[in-house]
Amino acid sequence: MNNLTLYGWNESLFQLKQTSPYKHLFHGRVSTVNKTNYEVVTACGLLLCELSGNLLYGRPSFELPCTGDWIIYQPFDDNKGLIVDILPRKHTLYRRKAGAVSEKQAIATHIEKAFIVQSLDANFNAQRTERFMVQALEEDIEPVLILTKADLEFSNHQVEEALKHLTRQVTIFYTSILSPETILPLRKFVKVGESIVLVGSSGVGKSSLINALCERQILLTSEISSSSGKGRHTSTRREMVLMDGSGVLIDTPGVREFGLAADNPEALADMFDVTDFAKSCRYGDCSHVNEPGCAVVAAVNNGLLEEHIYRSYLKLRKEAWYFSKSEHEKRKRDKSFSRIAKDAQRNKRR
């Protein structure tokens, strides 16, 4: 038997369930997504579930269940069920689907915090942290930066300098699985019933960190490749783990590329400390590139805003703008096709 409140079930989710035509059926949370089925944590145990035809063929791929989704199911056999509805999502971490212009992919949903995991070796990259932060803040998910392998030699000054423009919006932990005292503050940071997704590149130690937080070997781990110096893909799927008496951790495969799927490009100004300067621009719709009277460009030229931060801001804003514009056009096309289909159906009835 499982206590679903430990997995995040609450009154708000109960109220959402009451709006479903299937509210009389059972509910559970997707813990793992396989190619053709879903592992679902329920009050009665772990079930292996499939999608109903209405869901499978009636929704775009990014709306199909992902790890963390709360679903309603109909049991039909021992340890098996049929997913008939998905409760509305809140706080979903998306990324742009690889190779696509405007399609997005749900990584995990109903998330309170995103642990952005980077190791203090050659993997460390402030720009990668920025990308994860932008996407987390887009969905009101609290970003937390976890710097692993703190037992290695590294320049604390260089790390702090690289991250100083982000520290206002992100909590930072320095950890090493070889030093349990560095794990304890992070373990206390996880609250009961809270859901946390871990994201980062291969080899940064996400699975090892989860094992350390849970104080037992739950997930497989592997060594760094001696030939390439890069981490092997230990995690091959998104997987939910329950900490004893605490919250839920969601492990994810390492990502080489994390494309933005942000709908509000202008929100990046706050994260990069551009907003205060932008208030003094001559034009209200200033793009902060080459307009006369741009206070942001002036701040860069006067050394008040570091150029590498300004360049990161422009790059991510352009990427987010491109995605949101493509997404908007895609929605317009979908609406247009929907109207045409409805008109054709009406004409056929006549």
Describe this structure in words.
This protein has 350 residues and is α/β, with parallel strands linked by helices. The protein has 3 domains: 4-86, OB fold (Dihydrolipoamide Acetyltransferase, E2P) (Beta Barrel); 93-251, Rossmann fold (3-Layer(aba) Sandwich), CATH 3.40.50.300; 265-345, Probable gtpase engc, domain 3 (Ribonucleotide Reductase Protein R1, domain 1). Helices cover 32% and strands 21% of the residues. The protein contains 10 helices and 13 strands. The strands form 3 sheets. Strands 10-9-8-11-13-12 form a 6-stranded mixed beta sheet. Helix 4 (156-163) links the parallel strand 9 and strand 10 (171-174). Helix 5 packs across helix 6 (206-214). It is globular.
Cross-sheet strand order for the largest sheet: 10-9-8-11-13-12
Q: Average pLDDT, to the nearest integer?
A: 86
By CATH's scheme, which homologous superfamily of the largest domain applies? P-loop containing nucleotide triphosphate hydrolases
For the largest beta-sheet, the strand count, sense and barrel status come to: 6 strands, mixed
**Form type:** globular
Protein name: Small ribosomal subunit biogenesis GTPase RsgA
Subunit structure: Monomer. Associates with 30S ribosomal subunit, binds 16S rRNA.
Pfam families: RsgA_GTPase
Cofactor: Zn(2+)
